[in-house]
Task: structure prediction
Amino acid sequence: MRAAQTLLNAAKKGSKAGPGVPVEMYPLFAAVAVAVGSGCFFTYRHFAHDKQLRLWKNPNLSKLDEVLNDSEKK
Result:
């Protein structure tokens, strides 16, 4: 019984102030980091390289001329 108390006291003295992060949480943190990183990467890739997505004024993708021409023909 005395050896266990000595080990517990030694563990308490060497610990940091405040609650620490359990070692079992590290794989969870890694998985969440990979998920967030890949989500950011694929979202950026979609916004940056999608030709059909209109984020800025792009006259090549505008169908306004077609609509105006159709209304003039009628």
Observations:
- DSSP finds three helices and no strands in the chain.
